[in-house]
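Before the break, one more example. Copy the sequence into your notebook; we will annotate it together after we see the structure.
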Amino acid sequence: MDDLFGDVSGGGGPNEIVEKRIDSFSPGDTTAVTKIFLRGEWTESRHQEVLCQVGDDFIRLSRTNGSDTIQYGARWEHRIEMPVLADAKLVGKTVGDVVRAFQDTHDGIPRYDQGDCQVFAQRIFKRLAGYTPSGSGGDDDDFM
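Here is what the structure looks like once it is written out:
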């Protein structure tokens, strides 16, 4: 399976966690997160990612075959078109909740061959939004 970011043969080791700190968010931050977006395409082998809105800023959560990335202060724009597949308003969620959802998802499926970018993004979305987005296969994945 290939995604837009290159070979996804999976490798055997856990994905590296990459943290890109672009502004002042911190993992213990209690700042409210107001909305979550699942972006990408439903087509197999196409990339998906999650964006969480914090005021006018975003936190981007994504997986490639080598790294799981949490990017504070991400831009909405992407180098490729990323249609919104699902979105939800969040009530009572904080930056800390987003960081925990990211970390727990990584810990549960630390390797790409256990869950690709779509499984990774959909699990984070489900944990924060409380539902599985339509169009997904849920946890039914050929990597599991």
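The chain has two helices and six strands. The first strand starts at residue 16 and ends at 21. Try to locate both features in your own notes.
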